[in-house]
Design a protein that fits this description.
With 261 residues, the protein is an alpha/beta fold. The chain is 47% helix and 15% strand. The protein has a single domain, classed as Rossmann fold. It is globular.
Length: 261
């Protein structure tokens, strides 16, 4: 199957590193113009310099602070003034680990804003032009906790569930316009965030990082962590014409770890 995104423009959030960077790379390789969006301009410029432009694409960098919803909204409006976005990838770092019972209510509000509210504002910004072209792809990078809550990620589990239901609702509302809305649920993936999770658990439990890693791998039937590009391949497919009849779904990419269909 050859996936061709030539002529499409993708706005990829959280694209300075990890899964977001991998998605930007693979979408550019498939021919798309890429609009990179994250906080660190230097990292984004480095990512942009490595993106494929063999199909004559143009790539762009914008910065926003996802802890500030007003800033994200302002930047989103600036982006859509200059670019007709065909593909939106909502992706941002998850909340800190910890039990739900121990969480301060402010932590839930901050996570809700960083994830659901920012996602919603970005969708509202890009959908009008998608409706005009009768084509649009919204892909939300969430977590397998949408299906089964993960241990010691109380705030994240709660907010990810909200984002999942929000996206299913949008999928139903936007389908008639040729706009699909789908979620990708990554498992443990070799990113900077996974490294931090392993380090923090090691420090908290006073055990070696290798032991923490082996315990995590034992929960994965494939006995390995995912690679960012493996998440990106799913995003590229869902962005394409090949996925035109797929909407309102959760695509799990976790090596079989999630214990349900």
């Amino acid at each position: 199957m050859i996936i061709d995104l030539k002529g499409k423009t993708a706005l990829v959030c959280g694209s300075s590193q990890g899964i977001g960077r991998a998605i930007a790379n693979e979408m550019a390789a498939a021919g798309a113009n890429i609009v990179l969006l994250a906080r660190n301009e230097d990292k984004l410029n480095s990512v942009m310099s490595a993106l494929s432009s063999t199909n004559g694409q143009s790539h762009f960098v914008y910065t926003a602070d996802f802890s500030n919803t007003e800033n994200v909204l302002a930047v989103a409006n600036k982006i859509v003034e200059k670019h007709a976005i065909d593909i939106l990838v909502n992706n941002t770092g998850g909340p800190a680990a910890g039990k739900a019972i121990d969480a301060n209510p402010v932590e839930f509000l901050q996570a809700f804003n960083a994830h659901l509210i920012n996602n919603h504002q970005l969708v509202q910004a890009v959908v009008p032009s998608m409706k005009t072209r009768k084509f649009g792809r919204v892909i939300n990078i969430i977590s397998t906790s949408v299906k089964v809550p993960l241990h010691n990620l109380g705030v994240s589990n709660t907010i990810r569930g909200a984002v999942g239901n929000w996206s299913k609702t949008l999928a139903n509302e936007l389908a008639v316009f040729g706009i699909t809305v789908n979620n990708i649920l990554p498992g443990a993936t070799e990113t900077e965030r996974l490294t931090t999770i392993i380090q923090n658990k090691s420090n908290k439990m006073a055990i070696e990082q290798d032991i923490v890693k082996e315990e995590m791998l034992a929960e994965i039937p494939m006995r390995r962590f995912g690679k960012p590009e493996e998440i990106a391949y799913a995003a590229v497919f869902l962005s394409s014409d090949k996925a035109s009849y797929i909407t309102g779904t959760n695509t799990v990419v976790d090596g079989g770890r999630t214990p349900c269909l």
